[in-house]
Design a protein that fits this description.
The chain is mainly alpha-helical and about 450 residues long. It is built from 21 helices and five strands. InterPro entries: PAB.
Length: about 450
Amino acid sequence: MNGKGSNGFGRNGFDNSNRKMDEDYNKDMLGRKNNVKNGRHAKNVTSSGNIDSSRVSGSRFNILNEEMEVNLNEGSSQQKANSSEEIAIGANSENVCELEGLIRLSTRGLSKTERDNNNNNMKMGFVGAMHRPPPATPLPLRHVRASVISCSSSSGHVSFVKDVAAANPPAHLNQLLKVLQTRGETIISPGSRQGLIPLVIPLSENLSGAVTALLRWPTAPPGMEMPVVEVRKHGVWLLAKNVDQYIHRILVEEDARHLKESNSELFHASSEAGKKLYRRGDFAESQITNLDSYLLKKVGIFPDVLEGKVMRHFEEGDHVSAMVTGEFYMKKELFPGFGRPFVFSAEILLRVGRTSEAKDAARVALKSPWWTLGCLYQDVASIAQWDDEQIEYINEKVTEEGRREDLKKGKAPAQIALDEAAFLLDLASIEGTWADYTERIAECYKEAGLNEIAKFIMYRD
């Protein structure tokens, strides 16, 4: 089996490959009618009298949004308030209203007994302890002392982004470097990339060997031109969509840790950028007791924080809100280009006993770059119920015979080269053997006419 059927690799990604998400699956996942009374995670809103029955095949999010316009301001009973915890997602009020409304409508009209029965049905299939994001295999502690640079010369990172990575440097990159150094991390050369995925620009390394970096997409998704990531052996974990968002989060967390004492070092390091992003004491004055809720409302949407909110819903026995929040996490505009939200959804669905849906979610995740999964490829392939057929398919595509077949099908040579580069990155992520593929990946980008990307891929100190 080579995976060339409906579950094969139509791919449309920001790595410039011709990856294409399974649109039929997305419509099914977001538009499927669900029944809370049978243990499903959202009420069968498509049967609501407020909804035109001719639109039952549409996205559940769209349907719920239409109902929210009518119902969001309605007074709610104490029962509804308990199941509709105030969730503030990002600085965008539309996201806040959407997720609150999704949870409210998912339990609207249900009695306490019905809600308890629904949670019990889900709990029966909920196996194993739930935690914050699963730790991926960390990088081994790297010996980078020869590449350590002082913060006074951190302008080298700005020059590297501009001259080598051929991108616009983030406005407050120097301030982020100072903040990272102030909190105890070692600033490292942007060219110290041995053993790392070749799309990153290293910034700092902590005592455990974890590297914070910028991600330089071959083609950046909208709103994520240069996200901040943690580099792991098999890929990256998204820390923030941009430099400003990451500085903002660090300052808020620092302020929350020192509510009763003065600690100005990080705020001083952030200089004018910090003053623009966050006013000291705002967390305490907001009277939002939960730090994660403050981050989601005032700073931005972060994968680890959103996953943590799902976990807390499960721990509190509110499985309906957990599943609705998990589906919200998969909205394509939240984390474009990343497969992690679909991996997380697959893990949750599997643990509540919904194996078929978990399989579908895992297969969608594997249509994203494998280095964005946030875990081992093998873990996701297992949920997808795939053995090695996808790896075999990719290995076929990057052969000379595979390239000739694509040419016969009318695919442009430049696109074939871009696809091969993306496939090679996927293969390298399986074992974290980036160095084995770097030279050929650079050649592919050069063949596609992306000479600056090819130069960046090959650059090393």
